[in-house]
Amino acid sequence: MNYPSTAPEIGTPEAAGYIDWRTSQSLIPYPEAISEMEARVAAIIEGREPELVWLLEHPPLYTAGTSANQADLLWPDRFPVYEARRGGEFTYHGPGQRVAYAMLDLNRRGRDVRAYVNRLEEWIIRTLAEFNVTGERREGRVGVWVTRPDKPPLPDGSPAEDKIAAIGVKIRRWVSFHGIAINVEPDLGHFGGIVPCGIQGYGVTSLVDLGLPVTMEDLDVALMRNFKSVFG
Fold first, then answer.
1. Which of 101, 100, 227 is nearest to 175 (CA)?
2. Which terminus in the chain has less CB density within 10 A, N or C?
3. How far apart are the C-alpha atoms of 226 and 173, rounded to whole Å?
4. Catalytic machinery residues
5. pLDDT in tens, 104-143
6. Rounded to an integer, what distance in angstroms lies between the CA atom of residue 102 and that of residue 97?
């Protein structure tokens, strides 16, 4: 990993490859996270701050992306619902789920949103592989999925699949924010208040649900290690 402990001065050669990593130990309210991201993205655009990856957990809540269908909010009074102003539909966030907000400068990483989402998926897939979990992409289904041979097959006979990680991004002047969410040990029953990402017929899982006693700290180490291999 070998990330510097303090940020180098913006504009120096050392700053070009520097990523600021922040890990929050307490649950971060969603409006606070949005405000922090907005401020950091503005600072990155203006060249005042380096890129940032922020690892955190939220209290239980639902977020609605720009494509959210209100019919997919099955239990509107269960938890607070926030307009996320990111791509995607309804998503659950809560304790036991590692959220990684990535504020990255795509001006130097490539102005290609599809390629960026692909790299976020690859980041998740490589991270999960460290715990012997095979995460996979699915055409037309954003996020990362795992097959569940231990569950009954789907009505068409294909293997059951569960979603283990979600992705939602927003781009402003080619600086990204929002990011990914990987289920470590959330209350999976809380996903029942929505149709996650508007996709019906599939379940949701977590590392612990798969029988893997992975801690948040274990996942954070793997996320940092694999970020560098995917994003440089």
1. 101
2. C
3. 26
4. 197
5. 999 999 999 999 999 999 999 999 999 999 999 998 888 9
6. 16
Spell out where 65-207 has E strands. Answer: 81-83, 90-93, 97-103, 136-138, 141-147, 161-172, 175-183, 203-204
Length of the chain: 232
This prediction's pTM: 0.91
Q: What is the pLDDT of residues 60-106, one digit of tens each?
A: 999 988 888 899 899 988 999 998 877 778 899 999 999 999 999 99
Taking the C-alpha atoms of residue 54 and residue 69, their distance in angstroms, rounded to an integer, is: 28
CA distance 114 to 78: 34
Place of tokens 């009505």: 155
The closest alpha carbon to 165, from 175, 148, 179, 151, belongs to 179
For 196, residues 6+ apart whose C-beta sits below 8 A from its C-beta are 90, 91, 92, 163, 166, 204
